[in-house]
Amino acid sequence: MSCIYILWIRQLTRYVRSRSRMVAALGQPVLYLLALGFGFGPIFQKAGEGSYLQFLAPGVVGMTVLFTSMFTGIELIWDRQFGFLKETMVAPVPRIFIMLGRTLGGATVAVLQGLIVVLVCTMAGFRPTNWALVPVAIGLMVLIGILFTALGTAVASLLSDFQGFQLVMNFLVMPIYFLSGALYPLRHAPPVLEAVARIDPLAYGVDGLRAAFLGTSHFGMLTDFGVLTFGALLFLGLGSYFFYRIQL
Amino acid sequence: MISVRNLSKRFGDLAAVQDISFNVKKGEIFAFLGPNGAGKSTTIKMLTTLLAPSSGSVEIDGLNPAKHPNQVRERIGIVFQDASLDTELTAYENMDFHGVLYHVPKRVRRERIARLLELFGLWERRNHFVKNFSGGMRRRLEIARCLLHTPNIIFLDEPTLGLDPQTRHQLWSQVRLLNQDEQVTVFLTTHYMEEAERVADRIAIIDHGRIIAEGTAAELKSNTASESLEQAFLSLTGSAIREEEASSLDRMRGMAKLFRR
How do B14-24 and B2-11 pair as beta strands? Predict the structure, then answer.
């Protein structure tokens, strides 16, 4: 048990110590927020949908949690040969504990990063319509974090060097983000895009965040929680399985 | 301490290790030498619970690593060829984490960490980040770390690769001291023949997955009428350079050199 705890603490310690990485990771979300938020703002308003900044902010938060989580998962490729992970895998500790510790640690870091982005969004003018639901939003971020850290771990367990990393980034992570409805309302999207969003876990995450922050939802808050919980458990299982099968 | 009988490992058609047998007595320093691709890494992995044999038996301190991996792991310490330290943490934290993973109780942990860091000359730098340590310091930290849970056997895979002579000399002195004082059995692999000759009690030479010679350095030299262990080694394994294909591990090592963490 204490093993899970120290693995969790380790992820947190590394995060808290890397100020520059924290700031660097904010670059992309802030860019999206400012460029798209203020850029598309006027037409969005004109189309009668209201403030694009408000609409976009939950999407950008979702993006942050997604990228941070996947990155922690993918870090595995390096870690297992040259890092602390190799040490943990020859220790008398069941692999499932290592998996849980890493996943919880990665999810926590992703949520913290997400919260910083929420702060940045509020500085840009974003306002949740119901502050009481912010804890619900945090809960959703935790689920998204667990889901994608586990997914990142599953994928990284199958890759043996960084050549696959580029493939994963471009053909998995980016599509998950762009097709999730983080950037455009699913209500008015062409049927094909809406259908694709339905199989994208992040779509439910972003939708849930919008429900919590803004009170509007495409799938319904309950569905969002349901799908995310199911997805998190599914990928935890998958990730644990592939992680267990890693041969050093 | 280590008893290997008719050990074999096949990967599909490739027989990486073929029918090897050897013993290592308690308190002995045993060196495993061989050219690249001879089967050293595969053998070490089978001894340290990381790989299951295709056939044959391995006994570490009376236990079968394939059947009781966690129990074996508690009794052995491993220092890999590639460093497995967390560079973003301090030396002390690296030691502490190891202690938690190996179930060393808190108070005992604290005492032993202090003693080991002191012994390996790292106590003053205990709160410094490992990323600022030199190669030699990192190696010393890894050896200190693998001793934290008082293993009976330690496995050192090319421990002095890339280190300067002073550091190498100091490292081996410390290992030999531990071997003498606490009867820790040492199983090592290395390419540095003079070191193997100086440090090891007995040596086994492996090539193409088979043990082709075994004995003390003196025995090996007299059997091949050589003046140095290196000559004996070359006469046994031939001076031709081995054909090798770069594996993904080699690519990663290349990247590691580039981003010298």
Answer: antiparallel
Q: Which H helix or E strand runs over A99?
A: helix A95-124
Nearest CA in chain A to B69: A92
The residue extents of the domains of chain A are: 2-244
CA dihedral A43, A49, A51, A53 (to 10 degrees): -80
Q: Sort residue B235 into left (φ over 0), alpha (ψ -120 to 50) or beta.
A: alpha
Of A93, A101, A92, nearest to A72 by C-alpha is A101
Radius of gyration of chain B (CA): 18
Record the pTM: 0.86
Query: Contact B49/A90, CB-based, under 8 Å?
Result: yes
- On chain A, the residues whose CB falls within 8 A of the CB of B97 are 6, 10, 84, 87
- pLDDT band, residue B261 (cuts 50/70/90): very low
List the domain boundaries for chain B.
2-258
Place of tokens 């399985």: A241
Structure tokens at B260: 């010298």
pLDDT digits (tens, 9 = 90+) for B118-172: 988 899 999 999 999 998 899 999 999 999 999 999 999 988 888 888 888 888 8
DSSP B143-177: HHHHTTT--SEEEEESTTTT--HHHHHHHHHHHHH
Instruction: Check CB contact of A174 with chain B, cutoff 8 Å.
Output: no
Alpha-carbon distance values, B102 to A91, A130, A164, B69, B73 (Å): 6, 48, 33, 13, 9
Q: What is the per-residue DSSP string for B214-239?
A: EE-HHHHHHHTT-SSHHHHHHHHH-S
pLDDT at position A5 is 93
> Which superfamily does CATH assign the domain made up of B2-258 to?
P-loop containing nucleotide triphosphate hydrolases (3.40.50.300)
Helix (H) or strand (E) holding B77: strand B76-79
pLDDT digits (tens, 9 = 90+) for B71-92: 999 999 999 888 889 988 999 9
Q: Give the C-alpha separation, B42 to B17, whole Å.
A: 7
Span A118-157, pLDDT tens digits: 999 999 889 999 889 999 999 999 999 999 999 999 998 8
Q: Do A160 and B248 touch (CB under 8 A)?
A: yes
**Residue B103 DSSP one-character state:** T
Q: Are B179 and B156 in contact, with CB atoms under 8 Å apart?
A: no
Whether B84 contacts chain A with CB within 8 A? yes
CA B225 → CA B218, B228, B235, distances in Å?
A: 10, 9, 9
Whether residue A82 and residue B103 make contact (CB cut-off 8 A), yes or no, is no
Q: Tell me how far apart the alpha carbons of residues A220 and A187 are, in angstroms, rounded to a whole number.
A: 12
DSSP β-bridge partners for residue B154: B77, B186
Which DSSP state fits B2?
E
List the Cα angle A150/B103/A76 in 5-degree steps: 25
